[in-house]
Structures are given as C-alpha cells and as structure tokens.
Amino acid sequence: MISRRKFLQNNSTIALGAFLLPTMDFGNDYIKNPGLQLYSVRKEMLEAPIPTLQKLSAMGIKQLESASSNKGHYYGLTPQEIRNIAKDLGMTVRSGHVQLDKNWAKTLEEAAAAGQEYIIVSSLPSEGQTIDNYKKVAEQFNDAGVEAKKLGLRFGYHNHDFEFEKENDTVLYDILLEETEPTFVCMELDLGWVVATGNDPLAYFKKYPGRFPLWHLKDMDLKKKISTEFGKGGLNIKSMFANATQSGLRYFFIEQEEYSVNAFESIQYDLNFLKSI
What we know:
Elements: H1 4-24, E1 35-37, H2 42-47, H3 49-59, E2 63-66, H4 79-88, E3 92-98, H5 104-113, E4 118-121, H6 131-150, E5 154-158, E6 166-167, E7 170-171, H7 172-179, E8 185-190, H8 191-196, H9 201-207, E9 214-217, E10 219-221, E11 226-228, H10 237-242, H11 244-247, E12 251-254, H12 263-276
Parallel strand pairs: 1-2, 1-12, 2-3, 3-4, 4-5, 5-8, 8-9, 9-12
Antiparallel strand pairs: 6-7, 10-11
Helix pairs in contact: 6-7
C-alpha cells in the first residue's frame, strides 16, 4: 500500500510542471510588472489605505501583497473592498502574509475573497531551531497547502535570516524544501535575507528549480543588516532576473522596510532602478 507522502511525491513533479508553464512565456516582462509588499507603506496604509493605493497605482505598481496589521490583513478594508479598489486602479492583490494559527480557516476564506493566488505564512508556527521541529513544520505546511488548494490558493512560506542557521551542518531552510511537497507548498524567497546570511539565491534556484514563484525583492546593507534602496546593497538584482526562469518566478514584490527619506521616495527610487536595468 502506497503511503500518503509517497503518493504526493509521485504526483508532485507533474503538478509542479503545470504550475510552471505560465512562467516560461513570461519572458522579459518581469520588470514591467512590478509588485509591492504593502508592509513597505504600512504606516500610510493604516492611516489612509485608499489614497495610498491610488498613489502606488500612479507610480506604476501592478501587483500587491498584503501583510497582517492591527486592522487585519487588509488594513481595515474588507477582502472584497481591497480586491475591487485594486482592480479599479489597474492592480491585483496577488498574495498576502498571514499566520498559520487557530484562525486559519477564516484566513483562507478572506484570501479567496480578496482574489489572491497565493497565501504566504511569514513565521514558523512552532518555535525551535532544530531539524526535528523543521520536519514537524514541513508536515504542517503540507497539510495547510492541501487546504489552501481546495480554495484555489497556493500556499507558501517566506523566509527571514534565522532559517539559514544549521544543526549538524544541515541548513534548516533546506529541511523545509526537502520535506514539503512542491504540489502544495512553494517558497517566497526573500532575496535580501538570503544574501544577508552569506548565501546565494542563485544556488537555491539551481538546486531547487521552480520552487520560488514569488520573491521579495529587497536589497540589503550587508554591514547594518537592514534593507536599502536598490543598487545600494549586496544584492545583484540584474543577475536575479537573468535567472528568474530557473527560479520559477511568477511575481516579485518590492519590500522596502527602511527608507533614506520616506517610503514613497524609496519605492520610486527602486522602480527607477529597475527601469535602468
């Protein structure tokens, strides 16, 4: 009798190929289709979400990723409201950062109502920098991915820096990649945190092709370990896009956590940089 895990593994290659088909024809249009993680304008979204979205649209942002706030996942707007507002402005809510907790069923329903394609967990559901805990988390992610798929959503995980710690010479982040099923679990790779830990995103694209359909495009000041505007830090952005197909990239979201002046000026700087390459 075939185990559930073996059954999923046998079917994951076929299903993953289906997910990657649209990517192969995306060509050089990545940079013309910029996205933004709304945490970049967290203060502005909490104070005035609609004017903020209007301004982002005028700047050329096309794709949006929400983040949890003290006003919910959509900054005080309902899922339907942010979906409709974004559509009227020529944008799409593609993804959202959430927690895998007791409210998971409601979170899934909200994401579906917002019209999202992806739902991304942005922290581990249980603590412990051990291989055993990461294997446990991987199983939770597999189950969550099955539930998400029932509502037409792709489940994923967003890394920070701590996942690249090691136990017995094993990188803990690699446990998540090895133990999760590609059919149900994808990865949103935060490129800034990868280079901040001394790792190379391109090595991950090569080792796990197609597993990273979403990026947080974030340049990092490698000395201060904080985000900086594009071209000022340690991330070779041009090289990232040159290898986007191997990554499996569908959408990227600019994430600007710190600013030289203010959020909008930093985002505009980033957009201008992308146009220059």
